[in-house]
Amino acid sequence: MKVLFAASEALPFAMSGGLADVAGALPKALRHRLIGCRVIMPLYSTISEELKNKMKFICHITVPVSWRRQYCGVFEAHIDGVIYYLIDNQYYFKRDGLYGFYDDAERYAFFSRAVLEVIPYIGFTPDIIHCNDWQTAMIPVYLNEMYRSDERYKNIKTVFTIHNIQYQGKYGMELYGDVLGLPDGRESIVEYDSCVNLMKGAIQCSDKVTTVSPTYAKEILSPYYSHGLDDILKQFTYKLTGIVNGIDTDVYNPETDPAIFKNYTVDTIRNKAVNKEELQKQMNLPVKSVPIIGMVTRLVKHKGLDLVKCVFEELLKADLQFVILGSGEWEFETFFYDMAKKHPDKVALKLGFDATLAHRIYAGADIFLMPSQSEPCGLAQMVALRYGTVPIVRKTGGLNDTISDSGDGLGNGFTFADFNAHDMQNAVWRAVGGYGDKKGWNVLRTRCMKCDNSWGASARAYIGLYRELVGK
Predict the structure, then answer these.
(1) How confident is the model at residue 280 (pLDDT cuts 50, 70, 90)?
(2) Taking the chain, what is the end-to-end CA distance rounded to the nearest angstrom?
(3) How far apart are CA 187 and CA 431, in angstroms?
(4) Which of 3, 160, 165, 171 has the fewest CB atoms inside 10 Å of its own CB, making it the most exposed?
(5) Handedness of CA 236, 208, 9, 93 (dihedral sign)
C-alpha cells in the first residue's frame, strides 16, 4: 500500500505547531509497518542549509493556478528512511515564516494543485493521499473535479485530517474564480455560509475525514467546538473518525534525552529529583522539597489561562512553585510576568520558546497543568507522562482520551470536567495532596511512565483505515 502524506509543514524541515510533529513521526511509524509512506510539502526558504544540501533536484514543471501557470520545482530528500518531496516556488515560499500572508489562499491552492500535478514525475503513484488541515484541503476537491478522468488518478483515495477546526481557510467568494480555478458551476463544493471555505470542500470531497482524537471527533459535531462547521460534519458523519496522535518516543525519552540534567528510567526514577533541583537553580527558585507545577504552553485563552489567572494568587498561598514557559497574548504574558516579579520564590517565567528548557520542565516538574478550553489532541500531557510528571487536565479532546483520573487508583493523572476555575483549583489541590503521600506518588509516577503513547497504536489505526479504503 502506498500513501502520500501531504502537509504544509513537517519535521525536520519546518514547524509551527503539532502538525509538523505528526508529519514527521507518523510516516516513519507507517514505514516501520511496511506501508510505503512518503511526504510532500512546500520548500520554504526558512529550511536550514544543512537540510537543503540533502535534497536532490528531480524536475520542474508548470502548475495551473486558475488562469495562470506557475513554476514548480520538485526536490527529493531521504531522512530517517522516509522519502520527502519538496515543492519549490520562490514567489510563494521564499518568505520569513510559513503562514500569515495576504495570499495564503493562493499559495496553498498552488501547493494543492502541485501535489497532484507532480505525481507522474516522481515515480510514486499513491493508493491514498493523506491531506492535513486547510492548506491541503483543495487536494481532494481538485482530484474529484479535475483529475478523475485520467487513468493515473481514478483509483486514488483521499483522507483529510482536521488538526484544529478553528482554522478552516475561509475567504470571500471572489477567491473562487481568481485563485481556485474550479470548473464553472461548481461553487457549491467550497461555498459555506456565503464564503469560500476550503475545509468544507475537503470534508465533502474526501473519502475519509479524521481528527486527532476520538473525543474531538465527537466534540466538533456540536456548535460549541465546531467553529460553524457542525452542520456539514453532521451530513458526513459516516466519514468521520478520531485517531489520537502519538509522540516521538526517541525525542522524548528521559533515558537518553541530552537536554535534561540527569537521565533516568522508570527503574531509576529517583534521579528525577536531580532534574528538579537543577531546574530550581536554573530558574532562580529556592531549592526545596515542594511540588513544582510546570506549564509549557501558548499563553492564550483557549489553553485555559483564564482559569489559572482567576485562582493563581489563591494557589500561591500553598507551599508550591510554578515554572511557566510560553508566549502569546499580552494579557497573560503581562499577568505571569507580574506574578513572577511579585512572588520570585514561587513563580518562574520564561517568555518565548526554549526547546531545552521545555524538556527540563518535563523532567524536573512534579505536576503538569493543562486546563485547556479545547484541545484537539495535545502532546504535552503525553510527554509529561513519559517523564513521570503527573498531568492535571480538563476532560476535553485528546486530554480526555489520554489522561484518566487517579482517584480510582488506576488513572494516570488528575482531571476536571467543567471549564471552571474552582474545579481546576480543586484538581490542583488533589494533586498537591497526592504529592504529600510519597509512597502513593511514586506508584502514580511509575504508572505514568509506563503509559504507551508511541506512534505504534496510532499507526495501526491509520493502517486499518487505509485498508478499509483500498479494500485490502
Answers:
(1) very high
(2) 9
(3) 53
(4) 171
(5) negative
Specify whether the backbone of 5 is left (phi greater than 0), alpha (psi in -120 to 50) or beta: beta
Classified as helix, coil or strand, 143 is helix
CA-to-CA distance for 419 and 119, rounded, in angstroms? 47
Of 454, 371, 373, 455, the closest CA to residue 413 belongs to 371
Neighbour order of strands in the sheet with 128-132: 56-65, 68-79, 82-88, 36-42, 2-6, 128-132, 157-162, 208-211, 240-242
Q: How far apart are CA 134 and CA 198, in angstroms?
A: 6
The answer to whether 449 touches 249, Cβ cutoff 8 Å, is: no
Q: Flag whether pLDDT at 248 surpasses 90.
A: no
Q: Which residue ranges form the domains of the chain, and what is each CATH number?
A: 2-246+456-470 (3.40.50.2000), 266-452 (3.40.50.2000)
Read off the DSSP letter of residue 248. Answer: -
Nearest residue to 389 (alpha-carbon basis) of 364, 357, 355: 364
Return the number of other C-beta atoms located less than 10 Å from residue 183's C-beta. 9
157, three cell numbers: 483515495
What are the grid coordinates assigned to 404, written together?
A: 484518566
pTM score of the predicted model: 0.92
Q: Is the separation of the CB atoms in 419 and 304 below 8 Å?
A: yes
Amino acid letter, 461: A
Which residue carries 540533502 as its cell?
54
